[in-house]
């Protein structure tokens, strides 16, 4: 089959007296945000090319069709399709959700306390069918505080332009319909008269908070807060004690918060603390105290509290610790629960308000676990919580836990219908030195029969941006590779916060290359320890993890058998220079401002994947993207693929697959998600000669 060729239309670009030629700049349409909302506005020439690439990918993977089907059923077979969540008790009702074998979306249920009658008030599959849409993205599902209304938001393209609807649960009639172009989040007032929502501006940034009177015209909605900075985005939430609404505005590095009382007839948000560059804080209130979770004079955060936001006489409640990330608080009447993270592992602590004694919650003798808690009811006068944990080899278990007596009762366990024995697998936590001596945590999951003689293939997953930590939790899908002697490794590289704020700072801005060097160091270390061998590693990363994949494959392609890049941020310089795009301005503190800072420009240019493609051999590469993705525009992987075809000197596979009806998260629905995983895994098994 003929290899697709994207037409070259050379354009000379310049910045800071540096010029370069971009053959494929034309792929980025000036009306790109309109294209995200309406794909019919895509240039026919580009659409034709994307379809050709899709056909080319299908042709080259036609020998994996049966493997894809097998993987699909195998992965689906590990999911308990007929399942129900644990209930949450509100004032008058218990709420829970369920899934079915035939459905792709969740069903929301409730029953009145004291009654056995179950009410179905949301069915995702039925809602999708009514709308006759291929893509069906649910942003928020919120029941009003008096159990009368259901608020929900929908995205039918994948572009994350959410439309909000308000429905009377009892009559099933729409009371408010089509509040368009919102972020999707819905916050009800406690009297069920209003909702608060954030509106997207012309650049797809939520910078305004509106109050809407339920049942009224949207043209009468009240603007109660507007963020003036293009870099900051806004959201609204209710305090733990349900006395205040908090408006938070932030970029990735700085935050600011406002508050107003829940019973204010005309909300007038009041500033809590003026923003300071690099200072992140969030406020909550409970039992006549305001609690502040902040990194001010505490790199890895601390928690302070005070009784009066006007005087703000803050006292230390939880002191900072070096390279231990202090998490936020969950409040009960007699207890405060909090989390810590260090060395890519989390711990939970509970403190008795009366005695002041704090203890760690102990789950399991496994060294690598992911703990979690959730509330069982809205009324916080209880000693009971849901306590859960999983590990890379152990499916999630949830207990009803009594904080007072320390008794726990297993109430839910993630079932693997096709069977799963944790004892068949080994989990290791190692550390390896990076190029500068910093020790990188590594989580390894493998079958106990997999030989460690260098013969095994190894999937090396990485992300390393925005302070996002990669959690080593259980994922049943991975075992389709692990059971075929492919070792799964997560590299907890800099750019995340696995080792606190410093770990993040050492992997962003002018330190960004540490992210790439960490990942390469992990790959070389695993080769040296004979977990795998050169040219047997499959790199995998998505979004900013796709930036990582692009950077490392340009630098050390010889280490890899293959690369899987999902919605990859690979034309990072071009995007950084365009301040009209949704995310660019808000990410200056993450990547820099190339347009206004020459040092930032030179640094980004030195690693940006699209700009650093060279004439040399590359491994097998699968790139996936979505036409309606507003976070990483489809033109980035499109341009990257076309340029790489021009430059690479090998005969290895280079495949681009574009979902024509999806967004950043790929296909919607359970089967859609499984289908995408099966596709990626089939590619991996093909290049590993395991089909």
Percent strand equals 25-35%
The name CATH uses for the topology of the domain at 419-687 is Rossmann fold
> What is the first-to-last residue Cα distance?
22 Å
Derived from helix and strand composition plus strand pairing, the structural class reads: alpha+beta
Q: How many DSSP-defined strands?
A: 39
CATH architecture of the domain at 419-687: 3-Layer(aba) Sandwich
What about the largest sheet?
8 strands, mixed
**CATH class term of the domain at 419-687:** Alpha Beta
| Average of pLDDT | 97
Approximate helicity band: 10-25%
Give the uncertain stretches in residue-range form: none
Overview of the molecule:
The protein is an alpha+beta fold and 691 residues long. It contains 13 helices and 39 strands. The strands form 9 sheets. It has an 8-stranded mixed beta sheet, sandwiched between helices.
Summarize the structure in short.
The protein is built from 13 helices and 39 strands.
């Amino acid at each position: 089959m003929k290899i697709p060729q994207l037409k070259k239309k050379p354009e000379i670009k310049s910045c800071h007296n540096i010029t370069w030629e971009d053959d494929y700049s034309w792929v980025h349409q000036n009306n790109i945000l309109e294209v995200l909302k309406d794909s019919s506005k895509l240039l026919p020439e580009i659409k034709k090319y994307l379809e050709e690439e899709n056909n080319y990918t299908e042709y080259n993977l036609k020998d994996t069709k049966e493997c894809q089907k097998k993987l699909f059923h195998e992965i689906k077979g590990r999911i308990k399709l007929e399942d129900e969540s644990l209930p949450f008790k509100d004032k008058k009702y218990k709420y829970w959700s369920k899934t079915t074998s035939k459905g792709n979306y969740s069903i929301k249920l409730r029953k009145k306390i004291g009654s056995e009658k179950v009410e179905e008030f949301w069915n995702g599959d039925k809602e999708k069918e009514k709308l006759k849409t291929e893509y069906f993205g649910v942003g928020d599902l919120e029941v009003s505080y008096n159990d009368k209304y259901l608020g929900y938001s929908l995205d039918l393209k994948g572009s994350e332009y959410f439309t909000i609807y308000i429905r009377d649960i009892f009559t099933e009639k729409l009371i408010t319909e089509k509040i368009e172009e919102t972020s999707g989040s819905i916050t009800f007032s406690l009297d069920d008269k209003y909702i608060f929502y954030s509106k997207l501006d012309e650049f797809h940034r939520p910078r305004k908070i509106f109050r809407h009177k339920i049942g009224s015209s949207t043209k009468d909605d009240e603007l109660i807060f507007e963020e003036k900075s293009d870099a900051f985005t806004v959201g609204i939430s209710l305090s733990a004690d349900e006395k205040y609404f908090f408006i938070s505005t932030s970029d990735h590095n700085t935050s600011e918060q406002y508050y107003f009382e829940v019973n204010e007839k005309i909300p007038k948000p009041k500033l809590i603390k003026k923003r300071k560059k690099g200072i992140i804080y969030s406020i909550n209130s409970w039992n006549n105290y305001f609690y502040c979770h902040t990194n001010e004079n505490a790199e890895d955060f601390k928690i302070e509290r005070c009784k009066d936001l006007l005087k703000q006489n803050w006292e230390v409640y939880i002191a900072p610790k070096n390279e231990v990330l202090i998490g936020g608080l969950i409040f009960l009447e007699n207890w405060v629960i909090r989390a810590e993270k260090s060395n890519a592992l989390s711990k939970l602590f509970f403190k008795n308000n009366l005695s002041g004694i704090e203890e760690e919650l102990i789950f399991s003798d496994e060294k690598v676990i992911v703990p979690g808690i959730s509330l069982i009811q809205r009324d916080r006068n209880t000693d009971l919580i849901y306590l859960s944990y999983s590990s890379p080899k152990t499916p999630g278990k949830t207990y009803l836990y009594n904080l007072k007596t320390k008794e726990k009762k297993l109430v839910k366990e993630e079932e693997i219908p096709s069977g799963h024995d944790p004892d068949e697998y080994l989990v290791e936590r190692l550390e390896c030195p990076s190029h500068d001596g910093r020790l990188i945590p590594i989580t390894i999951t493998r079958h106990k029969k997999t030989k460690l003689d260098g013969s095994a293939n190894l999937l090396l997953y990485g992300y390393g941006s925005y302070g996002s930590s990669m959690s080593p939790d259980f994922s049943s899908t991975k075992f389709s590779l692990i059971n075929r002697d492919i070792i799964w490794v997560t590299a907890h590289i800099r750019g995340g916060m696995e080792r606190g704020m410093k770990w993040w700072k050492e992997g962003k801005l002018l330190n960004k290359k540490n992210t790439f060097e960490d990942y390469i160091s992990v790959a070389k270390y695993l080769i040296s320890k004979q977990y795998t061998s050169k040219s047997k590693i499959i790199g995998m990363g998505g979004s900013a993890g796709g930036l990582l994949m692009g950077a490392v494959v340009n630098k050390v392609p010889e280490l890899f058998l293959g690369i899987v890049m999902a919605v990859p941020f690979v034309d990072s310089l071009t995007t950084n220079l365009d301040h009209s795009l949704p995310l660019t301005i808000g990410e200056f503190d993450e990547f820099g401002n190339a347009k206004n800072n020459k040092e930032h420009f030179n640094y980004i240019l030195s690693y940006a994947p699209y700009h650093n493609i060279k004439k040399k051999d590359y491994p097998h590469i699968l790139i996936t993207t979505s036409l309606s993705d507003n976070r990483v525009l489809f033109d980035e992987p499109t341009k990257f693929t076309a340029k790489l075809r021009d430059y690479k000197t090998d005969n290895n596979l280079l495949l681009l697959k574009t979902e024509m009806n999806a967004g950043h998260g790929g296909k919607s629905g359970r089967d859609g998600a499984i289908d995408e995983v099966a596709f990626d895994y089939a590619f991996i098994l093909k290049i590993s000669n395991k089909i």
